[in-house]
Write a structure and sequence with these properties.
Helix content is 43%, strand content 17%. The chain has 884 residues and is of the alpha/beta class.
């Protein structure tokens, strides 16, 4: 018994459990061609959001389709340890319990971190199951698994031994909230409204003499007055005639009273600010360069949380932004603040914590990128070995890789792979790199020629490696390809086929995986990269918890069903373009599920007869739908080849909703309380099954349910492992002729409606004989128009209503008395109204101000109104001509 209503909630757990029980998702190397994708690993303690929903739905569509096409489909799931985000959550949890991270040993902290990961990790993967994701869960990986960590350490050691990793004292990006360095790519620059402070420095001849000139001062403009405590010089341009008399002089820093030299360098922009530059080598990249050039002192004024240290005098321990305002007030009080101006400034912020970045000098580990990046540039931009979809991202990829800097790979964190460097002395070069302390001791003894060294003399670098340095190995490491590149899995599944991810990590992750692939495997990690857009709300705002505009994905699944949500997301998700998400899209997906369900119920509700002949209308309907199916299949394959997943779904959606449900079923439907012939019924089931196969990657739950309701099937014959429809030659003319037939039938229905002729009343129908006329669908026209006599005539019939479709003219004789004058009056009134309406619409569209200011959606509506009205006018004028 088929339930009256489709209940998504009832079937989703049933079929997911069935798929898992029968190991349909599991993949092992065999003689088939592999199709492999690896999941972009979400944060281990994260939860499902709309971006994950979109990304993983697309991946599931690709993997399910590959499975149906006979590939050995392998989708590797997993999670990322997310050093910064996870450590921040653990630190916050400890703080709420009254525990300070700094009071713990590394081992104690890591125990808390693992407890947190065990408790919350994997939640997101369980949520992906509710979406229907068909990952090979037996292959689930975590970037902190032992083998994954060993792969990272192996990579570090290998690159270090090749001379590509080095330790350097550099200006880095410091995140004072996470208390770690960040790579340049993890800094997001935002334009912010701030202030430009004009500070006055008094002049002296030298360290001991009084003021050179009474009251003479030099004014310097800065956006960060708090950094005066780190000033070690004031710089002027040697070509600036205004300041020639300052050469060799010195200045007094306000508040601190420290004396600093005035130096000269053409780096200073004469036109900017006052033409004088305060130099703080410890807190600005350009100032550091000046400091090195002029051998200036370096004074770091900040603690690691961006509060001022002892150099900040009475501001010690206060936050930099609090201090900024307080210093400005003190400077004003002592007469050292000339003025302030509003100033638009680009401020670097942490991609993870959103904290404002501090430039900071620090000893860090770096990876040389200049040579490593070359194969990755060639693969995407020259040889086309790897394709980005959409292609416009090639330019962004080019810009990043051609302007790449050395990668700062060390992080001041404990959660992550600890850097395998062991120090045995206080010198900057007093270290060795090894995978464990025992191997490090052997290397240290060799390097120092000191056989007395013991492991007690060694201390491992406390820093962890950047999380991206772990995940850039992902496509290789998940198959053991770093530690054992000759293993069966790696040789079979690598390189993978498709990668689906967001454009925001095109450089962070995608480009780096490509670099790693060529460095370690000598080949690409994947062939195609499908870059999804960002999910935004219908007002184009990025979805976020703070805005309250991001729906809970699991609540959407509860409300609309997993299939409905998948369809709703994909119908609006063209590659690389942002998705304007609206819950109504999910409702549309739910309505589509109900449409398919009701179509199936209709077919299964017919009584089947083995004795009645097949009607001609059913025969041609089947031939037409088979052709339509093949045409749509060709279109779908083209869309998939070009990674237009949304367009592929839309093609199937239109075919099932319009062609199958609205036309095909109507053409073959038996008369009221009459049976259907078995030949037609069998073909209807066959067509339904073909539809289900095409729909299955997009709507796995509904289609599997109907598949098993059609007939009882074994596990070997489940839809998930059935066969994708086979492409065959088809009659394109049939499809074109039927488009005309639709218009013919619509014309009949319009006349019936206008003349109040009930469908139960049969009518005659005539067509002027024309060499372009096709008689193939006459039986369908007769059935759907309830025509008793359909004939071809040589000329127009008197007293008949007519309409045109293409070059053919069609007539319906009107029997009985008709008030011609009343009909003419009615049509004339309709004509006048439509012409007036058309005039108002065209006036809008010819108004340049309206066209330039109106949203594109509004313009589309107005243009459709214009086209529809023009068509109505033509129809009314034709009807009037027939009556006169």
């Amino acid at each position: 018994m088929i339930p009256a209503q489709f209940n998504a909630k009832e079937i989703e757990n049933k079929w997911y459990d069935y798929w898992m029980k029968n190991d349909y998702f599991t993949s092992k190397p065999d003689s088939r061609t592999p199709y492999t994708i690896v999941i972009p690993p979400p944060n281990v303690t994260g939860v499902l959001h709309m971006g994950h929903m979109l990304n993983n739905t697309i991946q599931d569509v690709l993997i399910r389709r590959a499975r149906l096409k006979g590939f050995n489909a392998c989708w590797v799931p997993g999670t990322d340890h997310a050093s910064i985000a996870t450590e921040a959550k653990v630190v916050a949890k400890l703080k709420s319990e009254g525990i300070n991270k700094n009071d713990l040993t590394r081992e104690e902290f890591l125990k808390h971190a693992w407890d947190w990961t065990t408790k919350y990790g994997g939640t997101i993967l369980e949520q992906l199951k509710q979406l229907g994701c068909s990952c090979d869960w037996s292959r689930t990986k975590f970037t902190m698994d032992d083998d994954m960590s060993q792969s990272v350490i192996h990579s570090f050691i290998d690159l270090y031994n090749k001379g590509l990793i080095y330790r350097g004292y550099r200006m880095v990006n410091w995140d004072p909230e996470a208390k770690t360095t960040l790579s340049d790519e993890e800094v997001i620059f935002e334009e912010r409204q701030g202030k430009l402070y004009f500070l006055k420095y008094k002049l002296v001849q030298d360290d001991s003499s009084p003021l050179e000139r009474l009251g003479e001062e030099i004014t310097v403009a800065t956006t960060r007055p708090e950094t005066i405590f780190g000033d070690t010089a004031i710089c002027i341009n040697p070509n600036d005639e205004r300041f020639l008399h300052l050469k060799g002089k010195k200045a007094i820093i306000p508040i601190s009273g420290r004396i600093i030299p005035i130096i000269e360098d053409e780096y200073v922009d004469i036109e900017f600010g006052t033409g004088c530059l305060k130099v703080t080598p410890a807190h600005d990249m350009n100032d550091k360069t000046l400091g090195e050039k002029h051998n200036l002192e370096i004074i770091d004024i900040f603690n690691d949380d961006a509060t001022l240290n002892t150099f900040g005098l009475h501001y010690q321990g206060k936050d930099r932004f609090v201090v900024r305002e307080e210093i400005a007030k003190e400077l004003e009080t002592i007469g050292a603040l000339a003025k302030t101006e509003t100033h638009l400034n680009k401020v670097g912020t942490s991609e993870r914590t959103k904290a404002v970045i501090e430039p900071r000098l620090s000893d860090q580990w770096f990876l040389k990128m200049e040579d490593l990046v070359k194969p990755a540039i060639k693969a995407v931009l020259e040889s086309d070995e790897i394709k980005l979809y959409p292609k416009r991202f090639d330019n962004i990829y080019r810009h990043w890789l051609e302007n790449i800097r050395d990668w700062n790979i060390s992080r001041q964190l404990w959660w992550g792979q600890q850097i395998p460097a062991y120090f045995y002395g206080d010198g900057k070069e007093d270290f060795v790199v090894a995978k464990n302390i025992e191997e490090a001791l052997v290397l240290a003894k060799l390097k120092t020629q000191n056989p007395q060294l013991t492991t007690k003399n060694l201390r491992q670098d406390q820093d962890a490696l950047d999380t991206w340095f772990s995940s850039w190995l992902w496509p290789m490491a998940v198959f053991g390809g770093i530690l054992n590149p000759e293993n069966e899995d790696f040789k079979y599944y690598y390189p993978t086929n498709d990668l689906v991810t967001g454009p925001d990590i095109l450089f962070f992750w995608v480009a780096r995986m490509i670099i790693a692939g060529y460095e370690y495997a000598g080949e690409k990690p994947f062939t195609n990269v499908y870059l999804t857009g960002l999910v935004r709300d219908k007002e184009r705002r990025k979805m976020s918890k703070s805005l309250g505009n991001s729906p809970d994905p699991l609540e959407l699944i509860e409300k609309f069903g997993a299939d409905g949500v998948r369809v709703g997301l994909l119908l609006s998700a063209s590659a690389g373009n942002d998705i304007m998400f609206d819950e109504e899209l999910c409702n549309q997906g739910k309505a589509f599920s109900n449409k398919i369900w009701n179509a199936f119920k209709l077919i299964k509700g017919w009584e089947v007869s083995t004795t009645i002949p097949q009607p001609q209308s059913s025969k041609v309907a089947i031939e037409w739908y088979e052709a339509k199916l093949q045409q749509t299949l060709l279109e779908i394959e083209d869309h998939f080849e070009k990674y237009r997943i949304s367009d592929a779904l839309m093609a199937i959606y239109k075919m099932v909703w319009d062609d199958f449900c609205s036309w095909f079923l109507e053409m073959i439907k038996p008369a009221y309380q009459q049976p259907i012939d078995k030949a037609t019924f069998d073909k209807a089931i066959e067509m339904m099954e073909s539809n289900l196969k095409l729909l299955n990657p997009f709507m796995p739950f509904l289609t599997e349910e109907i598949w098993h309701l059609i007939e009882e099937r074994t596990s070997e014959n489940a839809l998930i492992v059935s066969q994708w429809p086979e492409s065959k030659a088809f009659n394109e003319k049939l499809i074109l002729d039927f488009e005309t037939t639709i218009e013919v039938i619509s014309g009949i229905r319009t006349i019936r409606k206008n003349k109040n002729i009930p469908f139960k009343d049969a009518i005659d129908f005539s067509i002027i004989n024309n060499e372009n006329s096709s008689t193939y669908f006459d039986a369908v026209v007769s059935k759907l128009g309830n025509i008793t006599k359909l004939e071809y005539v040589s000329q127009k019939l008197d007293g008949a209503l007519s309409y045109r479709v293409n070059s053919n003219e069609y007539f319906i004789p009107i029997t009985g008395n008709i008030d011609v004058e009343a009909e003419i009056a009615k049509l004339t009134e309709e004509l006048i109204y439509n012409k007036g309406f058309l005039k108002s619409v065209q006036a809008k569209l010819s108004n340049e101000k309206f066209v330039n200011g109106a949203p594109e959606k509004v313009l589309e509506i107005e243009r459709k109104k214009e086209a529809d009205t023009i068509s109505k006018i033509a129809t009314v004028e034709q009807s009037l001509a027939n009556l006169k």
